[in-house]
Amino acid sequence: MDWSVLLSADVLGQMLFFATPLLLAALGEVITERSGVLNVAIEGLMALGASVGFLAAYLAASNGVGIGAAMAAGGLIGLLLAYGTISLQVSQLTLGLALHVLCVGLASLLYRLVVGLQFVPPQIQTFRGKGGDTLWQVLTGLPGPVYAVLLLAVVVHVIIFHTPVGLRLRACGENPRAADLLGVNVFRIRYLATVVGSMLIAAAGALLPMMLTATYSDRMIGGRGWIALMLVILGRWLPFRIVLGGWLFGYVEALQYRLGLQLVTVPPQFLLMLPYVFVILVAIRAYGGAAGPQALMRPYDREARG
Amino acid sequence: MPSLTETSGRGAGPSFGAEPPFVHAQGISKRFGAIQALDGVNFEVARGEIHVVLGENGAGKTSLMSVLTGLYQADAGEILVDGRPVRITSPADALRLGIAMVPQHVELVNNLTVWENVILGREQGGLFLRRDHQRQQVAELAQRYDLPIDPDAVVASLAAGQKQKVEILKMLHRQARLLILDEPTTYLTPQEVDSLFGTLTSLVQRGMTVILVTHKLRDALRIGNRLTVMRGGRVVAAGVPASETDELQLVRWLIGGQDETGQLLEAEPLPPLGSEAAPVLQVENLSVQVPGRVALRDISLTVRAGEIVGLAGVAGSGQRELAEALVGLLPTAGGRVLLNGTDITAWPVAHRLDAGLACIPEDRLREGILPSMPIVETFVLGLHRYLFPDGRYRIGKALEAANRVIDEYKVKTPHAWFPTAALSGGNVQKVIVGRAVQMCSYHRHPALVAMNPTRGLDVRTVRDVHHRLRQVASQGGAVLLVSEDLDELMGNCHRIAVIYQGRVDAVFDGPDYDRYQIGEYMLGRHEREAG
Fold first, then answer.
1. Does residue B92 sit at the A interface (CB-CB below 8 Å)?
2. Do B329 and B459 reside in the same domain of the chain?
3. B102 touches chain A (CB under 8 A)
4. Is B87 domain-assigned?
5. Is the same domain home to B457 and B491?
6. Which structural domain, as residue segments, surrounds residue B169?
């Protein structure tokens, strides 16, 4: 086969394209985790975002409305997660997983309620780019969300590291008591981070039908939420490194489709497996010595003794 | 309120006369579940003084300070600042009134730099952090108050004494008028204590008011203008001028009883050491290298039968690594460990225990006990190898052994089936010490590694623990006592080794130690002078 395909303009363009939903979800997650809350409902939130986003976009015939609706739904679930983990101090893992399951079911239910069973599933308009042949044309001709999310990564970086809010956010995730003693409202910061993060994650889910499939189907998230969760660790909680990690996964995903066309002798199921094998390989490397925010997963109790 | 009668006659010193006290807490009560942490406490501080609040662990000192700084909400009582009643519902409220606390375990954000820690929560102006400007401000503040700290240093890299100064800097940046320091000297070397007290004195000269919470009599009498003593959630002596009291009087207030106070002050003599006592625990050129932990380099140390050897050092100098390497939790990179002449360097933990090595772990709740399981099971864990040599778990036998220790050590518990973590810290420690001592009792020359065995305990339990260590030594055992509290080591050890950055460069012979000389080695100053 022709190995130049590995670096062709096509594959590189698709790398950026496929990385986009992953990146958006990972950016939402990193905001939340930096405040000390681990959002493990991420996969479910993306499913809910995909369903609500698709339905709203379908009914309003506007992807913007779809994304907005997905963010609203994600924000509500985020509020629930925040209330449980911050105010009631429930285990973040337990509640997160419960909400994940709830969201997956809810996503499926909502779709059935609105669309019902149809022989030909309804479709929405996907985001389209101009496309092109040369590398430059491909890279500048991608759909809008690709660039919007990269811009967002810059914004998130600036917020986390160059603004007072970001300083407080990092402090809450590292040592909430220290922050509290200095008059930082730990509860407010964590609520805010959890809700905003959940909104971005749901929006990432909505991007899937709007960029890839044009239709909704259950299980369409296919583990992308978990990959995003891992991207945060791989990227060491730094937005720019998360972008690099996201591209890595985008590349593997793009390659998977390309190789499917090129290597007909290899069973497609094996190629579909590639990103997940990659996750495992990267995870083994990335977990070694990764130190997240020190107060991650630890509820803050002001009257805790000793 | 009977608690006030002892001192009401003396009142405040002449300089604290007519104007209302700066901060006045009246009738403060606070309850945590079954524990009455504060019981109708009255407390006042005058402007411009260093007021020491003295009390045992659990006397309510920290709770009272937490009420003043808004961390706890009092169930009853009132706080007046400059004679006006105020409501303090959060640390932010307290800061607005100029009340700031430097907590016992310094609360800094480790991954941030000094200047970021200082400005956190009070970043001032604008959408963005103005790095250069704010760093400059912090540097100037540090200079003005003579606190030599690099504003760009990452907090995690600072020594304990420096971290404390960052805390003080933080509060100065917030224009604190009343600085509360909770047990500030616990983990400091003598040199660092001097430096801290110098800083506090100079702050007070510039108009600051300081509350110093401590259980150390020496510190209290050395720096305090007035003292308030607490016991069992009440104030037993309020605002006594330091010049009008002495250590014996303070201990009476602290402990309550009259009969044993003299005893508690006086150090129990160390068991005498035969000159040809055989070495029990020998460490020869031990090196340990584990990523992410302090590397031990070429450590040699001998503890003989009947001897208690102290290991002094600033927290994080490798004490923990040494203890874990001795017990067999960390692999060694070089050198040997011998127990009664047998090379145990490569032995797994279980074999070492069988050979007569016992350990009192550092973090009693996390490493020492089975929190939700009954005391009896926490107790037999490890002892099972001696109690049930045939491998059959006979609960009757376990219960008998546990009850014996509960009686002998006066562990306060309803019964041996009580969940271990429901005991108070002192009682948990008694169970752990009892277990270690019993393990030692099965051997002629056991070695006991005790990691900070008295941290956070009250005077009586501390004394109990020390007594047990001596008992192990006097029966032929070798004790390695690791502690960050130099006073504890000087009072209990035949010799003191000092560890600094994973090396032991000096061993001092007791009983007459030079605290400053040991301090120099703890801080690694001997190196800088030599090279």
1. yes
2. yes
3. no
4. yes
5. yes
6. 108-176
Q: Are residues B283 and B373 in the same domain?
A: yes
B334 domain-assigned:
yes
Question: Do B174 and A171 lie within an 8 Å CB cutoff?
Answer: no
C-alpha B282/C-alpha B341 separation (Å) is 8
Decide if B95 touches A, using CB distance below 8 A. yes
Count of other CB atoms within 10 angstroms of residue B31: 14
Q: By CA distance, what is A175's nearest residue in B? A: B109
Mutate which: A170, A181, A237, A296, vs B, most B CBs within 10 A = A181
- The whole-number pLDDT of residue B251 equals 83
User: Among A80, A12, A19, A68, which residue's Cα sits nearest to residue A44?
Assistant: A80
CA distance B106 to B183: 10
**Quick one: how many helices (H) and strands (E) in chain B?**
20, 20
* Domain contains B400: yes
Q: Each residue's pLDDT tens digit in chain A (306 positions)?
A: 667 777 888 889 999 999 999 999 999 999 999 999 999 999 999 999 999 999 999 999 999 999 999 999 999 999 999 999 999 999 999 999 999 999 999 999 999 999 988 888 899 999 988 888 888 888 888 999 999 999 999 999 999 999 999 999 999 999 998 888 888 899 999 999 999 999 999 999 999 999 999 999 998 999 999 999 999 988 889 999 999 999 988 998 888 888 877 777 888 788 778 778 887 887 777 666 567 788 888 888 876 654
Interface test with A, best of B106, B120, B169 (most A CBs within 10 A): B120
**B339 plus B477 within the same structural domain:** yes
**In the 8-state DSSP scheme, what is residue B118?**
H
Chain A: residue whose CA lies nearest to B70: A181
The answer, yes or no, to whether ipTM is higher than 0.85 is no
Percent of chain B with pLDDT over 90: 47
CATH of domain A3-114+138-287: 1.10.3470
Question: Per the structure, how many domains does chain B have?
Answer: 3
Are B346 and B368 found together in one domain? yes
Answer yes or no: do B400 and B501 share one domain: yes
* Closest-CA distance of chain B to residue A77, Å: 29
Task: Note whether B488 contacts A: Cβ–Cβ < 8 A.
Answer: no
In this structure, the answer to whether residues B86 and B141 fall within a common structural domain is no
CATH number, domain of B368, equals 3.40.50.300
Q: Which of B36, B88, B109 to mutate to test the interface with A (most CBs of A within 10 A)?
A: B109
Chain B hits for A185, CB-CB cut-off 8 Å, are 92
Q: Look at residues A210, A49, A64, A203 and name the one whose alpha carbon lies nearest to residue A123.
A: A210
- Residue A268's pLDDT is 78
Question: Does any domain span residue B267?
Answer: no
Q: The whole model's pTM is what? A: 0.77
Residues B166 and B186 in one domain: no
Map out the domains of chain A as residue ranges: 3-114+138-287
Please write down the HEC assignment for all residues of chain A: CCHHHHHCHHHHHHHHHHHHHHHHHHHHHHHHHHCCCCCCCHHHHHHHHHHHHHHHHHHHCCHHHHHHHHHHHHHHHHHHHHHHHHHCCCCHHHHHHHHHHHHHHHHHHHHHHHHCCCCCCCCCCCCCCCCCCCHHHHHHCCCHHHHHHHHHHHHHHHHHHHCHHHHHHHHHHHCHHHHHHCCCCHHHHHHHHHHHHHHHHHHHHHHHHHHHHCCCCCCCCCCHHHHHHHHHHHCCCCHHHHHHHHHHHHHHHHHHHHHHHHCCCCCHHHHHHHHHHHHHHHHHHHHCCCCCCCCCCCCCCCCCCC
pLDDT at B41 > cutoff 80: yes
